[in-house]
Design goal:
The structure is a homodimer of 423-residue chains.
Chain A: H1 8-26, E1 32-33, H2 41-45, H3 76-86, E2 93-95, H4 100-114, E3 130-135, H5 139-148, E4 151-158, E5 161-162, H6 164-173, E6 177-182, H7 196-204, E7 214-218, H8 236-242, E8 249-254, E9 266-269, H9 272-285, H10 291-300, H11 304-333, E10 339-341, E11 350-354, H12 359-368, E12 371-372, E13 390-393, H13 400-422
Parallel strand pairs in A: 1-12, 3-4, 3-6, 6-7, 7-8
Antiparallel strand pairs in A: 2-9, 4-5, 8-9, 10-11, 11-13
Helix pairs in contact in A: 1-13, 3-10, 4-5, 4-9, 7-8, 11-13, 12-13
Amino acid sequence: LYLDQADQSQRQQWLSELTADYTTLQQEGLNLDLTRGKPSSEQLALSDALDGLLQGNFIASDGTDTRNYGGIDGLPEGKQLGADILGVDADSVLVGGNASLTLMFHAVMVGLQYGFDGDGNAWNQQGNTKFLCPVPGYDRHFTVCEKFGIEMVTVPMTATGPDMDAVENAVQQDPNIKGIWCVPKYSNPIGVTYSDDTVARMAKLANLAGAGFRIFWDNAYAVHDLVSQPKPLADIAALCRLYNTEDSVIQFASTSKITHAGAGVSFLSASSKNLQAIKSFLSAVTIGPDKVNQLRHRRLLPDRAAVEQHMQKHAAIIKPRFDVVLQCLEEAFGDSDLGRWERPEGGYFISFDARPGCAKEIIRLAAEAGVKLTPAGATFPYRNDPEDKNIRIAPTVPSIEQLEKAMEVFVICVKLASVKQAM
Amino acid sequence: LYLDQADQSQRQQWLSELTADYTTLQQEGLNLDLTRGKPSSEQLALSDALDGLLQGNFIASDGTDTRNYGGIDGLPEGKQLGADILGVDADSVLVGGNASLTLMFHAVMVGLQYGFDGDGNAWNQQGNTKFLCPVPGYDRHFTVCEKFGIEMVTVPMTATGPDMDAVENAVQQDPNIKGIWCVPKYSNPIGVTYSDDTVARMAKLANLAGAGFRIFWDNAYAVHDLVSQPKPLADIAALCRLYNTEDSVIQFASTSKITHAGAGVSFLSASSKNLQAIKSFLSAVTIGPDKVNQLRHRRLLPDRAAVEQHMQKHAAIIKPRFDVVLQCLEEAFGDSDLGRWERPEGGYFISFDARPGCAKEIIRLAAEAGVKLTPAGATFPYRNDPEDKNIRIAPTVPSIEQLEKAMEVFVICVKLASVKQAM
């Protein structure tokens, strides 16, 4: 289907056929959901051994009684788990609670209201704080900015990561840009891994940017590979050491999509200067993270190899679901001008760019045929997709059969919305 | 020993005797610690069944899969546990992570930066925010204020709670006083429970105070009784309903000193208006609290009776330790002008008021004899005890024998410091 090359009578014919197909599907009374970027029950069950794993031994390797108060940055076991996941030194890791989002929120708060560089260096003492937001991106990153009144400046995502020309220009021209949100591996939602060149340019960014600039490197899918030889992600911490920009990057990860999504452990990795500022802040916020849960997680995942083996079990469950979606898209739109998408080698999402102006209508049509899609605009700051084209597909929760049916509906809705718009 | 009635030669004699006793104790090379307000290993072990209790059943009563994402305010099980502990309706409860301090920090942040009453009503839009701090009090409450730049105004504690005349005068005279920290039961550190009159006057306080005033009711020791018929704490939520001040109180509790201190569940109870503001804020901060841990805790403590039985086991361990301290104090100072203290019926601390100007010296002397005491001033805002007299004693961690020895040292140090100062 090449809409741009079709004449009006062809389009009219397609419209009739698609309307008929759509009406037929509507009558099936479906109730399917492609919105939920979370693990399925089958995936969660991979980690059910967590409960009861300690067998009465609550003492950590350094002698800490994990059941009691104490320690703001986590057990050696927790730090090493974070180090294994992020590929960083354990010394650089701070362990949080069950949500890396909380670590991100608090890290932004430190930069904005207190300053990583100490008194007088808070961003909010330097004017109107802005963050760069590669789009499409992760809605909860945008919500953090919104909550703090941080102005969001968008830059486009490409197949190699954020458009680095746009990123570099922006930080050079505006010293009030104090941060950028990055999901460097299997980026939420488009699923690309930043290229080596992109990571290297990120590592040098602080040399172009205003004072106190920080990269929020949310490596949420650090070990979430679906293929055996995935494209590797360059080591930004090592590159930052090379370029003397160690303080400019704060990395985040969690076990949320490794073990139990709601009951895991989160990690932050940063330079000693950043760690000091964050720990000082956190000591006013908490008596310390849940150490029993850290010990439990380390016993389940005692080293990097164990993490990788565990993730292969996830891949065995998830990969067929990604394949269904990607195959449906390829068959329907591979030879068309109706949409574009990446082919993620990991992560949790597939992102579909429809023809501009069609996303809302596709989502509406799908909903009326019983297939729930993430609301249009969700992947943009202020929930505003200026071109109204991006749709995020989350394939992990539905069954293969449900996915096949949902994608059948999706394909019809994309075609129908596109043809209607082109009439 | 009545110093004020002794003449100089008596004092000189005491000084010689006490110096000799002190020197003897110093030579014992002791290494004891009365600073740690945390449970002993024996207490922690009461809850070791938590790990493994779920036996593969992670589904909550409402069908929620606790292993997955979702839910900002907690499971029905978590809310009911909080309700049982605080004596409130489960509907009024929000469940947090392992630290009630985090809930308090975030609740203060909502009031200060966002406003419980919505846009335009944040405290920081109304001038220089101040909080009333009954002293002596809990250092971490003061740290929250310090972190937010909230000015702390002290009011004295009495045997019936904060001096309510002082509290009422202060809020009437200064509408910028937007909050007060309260530990209403076995108040940290002096160990008194607020009288019915105090609680009733607290419940009416919002009618005298400026807009947006909130009481931070940290009921940390709600079920931590050491005696079988403790003095009851009046129900502030019920009184607030009576006086139409429901929005003026936010209650907090946790299982930290019930189960595992570092790995428990925290609770907040408030009016629906406050809950709405707090939930809206938290949805930017977290994907939700650890629900597996909530379920685990409810299985261990399925109802109020189970909580009470569990706390009796704690009391059986702790009570003899409190008795040692109180008996030593009574024997040494019951008939003297060297100090005053309350006799707590629960909680974690005994607070000793030495003669003004003696606390630092007592603590220094004790340290040099191998007994670590909480630093002077720790129970006051900005770590400044203006009269230099309050010393917090934490008797739960040491053994009975250790406590007896430590109190022997303490008594000598109090006497020695007092006599020296009176010379």
